[in-house]
């Protein structure tokens, strides 16, 4: 998840115009998606992603990243936290809405690769409150947001983490990853 140095994942109205991206980061994220076969989204983020990624690689001018990520998006299972959506098996879209903890724990025990969560701060907050996130991958952008949607919210108890790795990108963004102890 992209985060400002002062801990915000989006501005007060969800704006992310401060996020810095480049090809080096797209390649790095591509390595992460290669290790996963599922993605988890909140409803709003899924609507944004599904409005773009299914056909992003089809354009004759599509970048390498758009082609690769579009192909990945179309083949993976997508889990969406929502109380209003309906599943769509034709798009490999599964809805988690009633008992998030039970449904997520069932999904996590299935055979397969990692499940990645993209953006989706409200969904991430829900998963953190239920202690369902095993690793945190944060792309810390060199900006102070001042206000907005916080990365961490509603955590009831201290969560001890173990450092996994970090990577500094040429554009000043630092990726840090931690696992739960």
Question: What is the second-level CATH architecture?
Answer: 3-Layer(aba) Sandwich
What level of helicity do the residues show? 25-40%
Give average pLDDT, whole number. 93
Poorly predicted segments: none
Indicate the overall shape.
globular
As a percent range, the share of strand residues is: 25-35%
Query: For the CA atoms, what is the radius of gyration?
Result: 16 Å
Structural class by SSE content: alpha/beta
The main pleated sheet reads as: 4 strands, mixed
SS elements, strand count: 10
Lateral arrangement of strands in the main beta sheet: 1-7-10-9
| Name of the CATH superfamily | Dihydrofolate Reductase, subunit A
Count the DSSP helices.
6
- What is the count of structural domains? 1
Distance between the termini: 20 Å
The run of helices and strands is EEHEHHHEEHEHEEEE
Short description:
30% of the residues lie in helices and 28% in strands. It is of the alpha/beta class and 181 residues long.
List the topology elements:
Layout: E1 2-4, E2 8-10, H1 23-34, E3 36-42, H2 43-50, H3 53-56, H4 64-75, E4 77-81, E5 93-96, H5 100-109, E6 114-117, H6 121-129, E7 135-141, E8 149-150, E9 161-168, E10 174-180
Parallel strand pairs: 1-7, 3-4, 3-6, 4-5
Antiparallel strand pairs: 2-8, 7-10, 9-10
Helix pairs in contact: 1-4
């Amino acid at each position: 998840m992209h985060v400002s140095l002062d801990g915000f994942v989006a501005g007060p109205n969800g704006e992310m115009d401060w996020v810095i991206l480049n090809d080096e980061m797209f390649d790095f994220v591509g390595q992460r998606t290669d290790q996963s076969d599922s993605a988890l989204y909140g409803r709003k983020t899924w609507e944004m992603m599904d409005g773009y990624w299914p056909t992003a690689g089809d354009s004759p001018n599509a970048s390498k990243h758009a082609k690769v990520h579009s192909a990945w998006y179309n083949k993976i299972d997508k889990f969406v936290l929502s109380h209003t959506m309906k599943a769509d098996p034709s798009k490999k879209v599964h809805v988690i809405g009633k008992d998030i903890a039970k449904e997520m724990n069932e999904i996590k025990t299935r055979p397969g690769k990692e499940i990645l969560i993209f953006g989706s701060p409200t969904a991430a907050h829900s998963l953190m409150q239920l202690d369902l996130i095993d690793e945190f991958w944060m792309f810390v952008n060199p900006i102070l947001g001042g206000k907005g949607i916080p990365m961490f919210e509603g955590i009831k108890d201290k969560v001890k983490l173990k450092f996994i790795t970090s990577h500094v990108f040429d554009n000043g963004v630092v990726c840090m990853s931690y696992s739960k102890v």
